[in-house]
Amino acid sequence: MSLPHAILTALLEKPSSGLELTRRFDKSIGYFWSATHQQIYRELGKLEGEGLIRALPSEQPARGQRKSYEVLPAGRAELARWTAVAQDPKPLRDTLLLRLRASAVVGTAGLEADLRRHLELHRRQLAEYQQIERRDFPPERDTPQDRLRHLVLRAGIDLETFWTQWLSHALAEFPEPSDDGRTG
Amino acid sequence: MSLPHAILTALLEKPSSGLELTRRFDKSIGYFWSATHQQIYRELGKLEGEGLIRALPSEQPARGQRKSYEVLPAGRAELARWTAVAQDPKPLRDTLLLRLRASAVVGTAGLEADLRRHLELHRRQLAEYQQIERRDFPPERDTPQDRLRHLVLRAGIDLETFWTQWLSHALAEFPEPSDDGRTG
DNA sequence: CACGTTTATGCAACTAGTTGCACAAGCGGC
DNA sequence: GCCGCTTGTGCAACTAGTTGCATAAACGTG
């Protein structure tokens, strides 16, 4: 439902080929809307068919036969429309919480190790976000665009902070190995 | 991938019919793994076919022709297995953040109202969780099971707290109406 | 110059979740 | 006793996202 709009946003920021988009998704927009290259190519085809983007005619030859796309006015209009439409927040779906809940009835065996692993992953992600913040949002730059993008990054930072804290807390009060929380 | 395990957990906590499960999903497990009644019925059929649950033979007659299910040993084993298996956290996917990012290029028109609406929704959800916490987790009850379930609820509470704070912050530094953050 | 590797594009099939609808039985009232 | 409402169960079709694979050009190296 949102992938086409994620792609439109990325292409407005900078016209790109499928592969460039894939790379930029891996390290920017993909932080809050991930996509594989297969999804991206498929969607680029659709968007072109709908007249929302077009292939840049200029640079054709180079290696492979890469095509770069740019957003057409209709595409920009569609993105603006979609941005303004009210949408309900989608309900939380988290397997780790589900597993914790399940462990209250079937025992916590094996779970603690994975909690530690998640904690480490979230710490890493947090560090990565903080590095991006230092690099891309120094105090002096402060256009409205910067402020909006910084807000998005702050959400990522604060979410990872939440997870690291919650996981630390969870591990701290985890049942002893001998007491696995099993009911029957 | 996880719906069957959510159902197994719910059925272990208490054998139920499809409708009862649906209701309990709406106000408990569904907070972190939502499901519609259609999904639940379909999955109950599958689980029964796989021999992980069975219909309780006893109470057949009543209204409609409701069937209650209970978990078989194979089902409990499968849940325990799944709980212990390492799983990667699934990447964040959030349309609101995407829209905010898009608004940096196409303008923030219409977005602020929806941010306010989301703030209100998250405040409500937070209040609901806090009420559940007061009701279900008074200080004196403290079995390992309680502590695990309380941890899950705490995650919900802290997440909603994060969103209300972040949304408040976002609204506070939102561009003035005359300045909509548009680039070109 | 042949052979494996990287770059780049893309199709097809599968899985999970959502939406829309169907149907049957009891319930409540006029 | 019929009519509309609610309860309870369920199928079918659709949508979004994932996984696995196919293809082809250029590159680099022995």
UniProtKB/TrEMBL annotation, chains A, B:
<feature type="domain" description="Transcription regulator PadR C-terminal">
    <location>
        <begin position="92"/>
        <end position="173"/>
    </location>
</feature>
<dbReference type="InterPro" id="IPR005149">
    <property type="entry name" value="Tscrpt_reg_PadR_N"/>
</dbReference>
<dbReference type="Pfam" id="PF03551">
    <property type="entry name" value="PadR"/>
</dbReference>
<feature type="domain" description="Transcription regulator PadR N-terminal">
    <location>
        <begin position="7"/>
        <end position="80"/>
    </location>
</feature>
<dbReference type="InterPro" id="IPR018309">
    <property type="entry name" value="Tscrpt_reg_PadR_C"/>
</dbReference>
<dbReference type="InterPro" id="IPR036390">
    <property type="entry name" value="WH_DNA-bd_sf"/>
</dbReference>
<dbReference type="Pfam" id="PF10400">
    <property type="entry name" value="Vir_act_alpha_C"/>
</dbReference>
<dbReference type="InterPro" id="IPR036388">
    <property type="entry name" value="WH-like_DNA-bd_sf"/>
</dbReference>
<protein>
    <submittedName>
        <fullName>PadR family transcriptional regulator</fullName>
    </submittedName>
</protein>
